[in-house]
Amino acid sequence: MPLVRKPAPASSGAVPAITGILEGLTSSSEEARWAAARAAAGTPECAAPLAAALRIEAAPRVREAMLTSLARMGSAGVAGVLPLLRSSDASLRTGALDALQIMIRTAPDLLPPLLEDADADVRILSCELARSLPGEEATPLLCNLLRHEPHPNVCAAAVDVLAEVGQSEALPVLAACALRFQGTPFLAFAIQVAKDRISRQPAPTRG
């Protein structure tokens, strides 16, 4: 009877692969950095170094590859992308937002923690992420935010998205928000616009 070889451990090549990616990300060669960024997509352990390399990367196509790989990493990628929303580099913030939109479409459960972030600017950007969700998913998330959000600019961001995708269940929440911020004219106006648009929507048909 022929001997059956035991399969090599699945992790046997993991360390060399990760080492190669990390070395590639810091290479002076744009081609090597681009290849490493693409290879990192299947290696969530590389999320943090990939995000760190992204902050100093100047080549547009390498940046794009880095963001795409982070977007494919799921929750590990969120941890790498989220700090970029606080970057002083506008293009990095935009790229991070685009990457998060890709993640949210396939894993909407990633959004609630972002809507509760301690940074008001992150909460504002997170409201924009909700715009890519179906109305029945975005509405309860944004309504929950509006019930306790103290910052008028964050509320305005949520209201703006609800004006586009909101459903009728948002109407009482919008009314309550208007009462809380009745001394903030711009928000009161935005809420009225959102209520008008939602009220004009046809009632959903029931099977």
Question: Can you give me a brief rundown of this structure?
Answer:
The protein folds into 2 domains: 30-106, no CATH class; 111-201.
Please explain how this structure is put together:
It contains 12 helices and no strands. Helices cover 66% and strands 0% of the residues. It has 2 domains: 30-106, no CATH class; 111-201. It is mainly α. The longest helix is centred in the middle third of the chain and has 17 residues, at 90-106. The model is unreliable at 1-15 (pLDDT under 50).
Write the SSE topology.
Layout: H1 14-25, H2 30-39, H3 47-56, H4 60-71, H5 75-81, H6 90-106, H7 111-115, H8 120-130, H9 135-148, H10 152-165, H11 171-180, H12 185-199
Number of strands: 0
Shape: elongated
Secondary-structure-derived class: mainly alpha
**Sheet of most strands:** none
Question: How much is the average pLDDT?
Answer: 86
The level of helicity is 55-70%
Number of helices, where a helix is a run of at least 4 consecutive DSSP H or I residues? 12
Pick out its properties.
single chain; 207 residues; mainly alpha; 2 domains; 12 helices; 0% strand; disordered N terminus
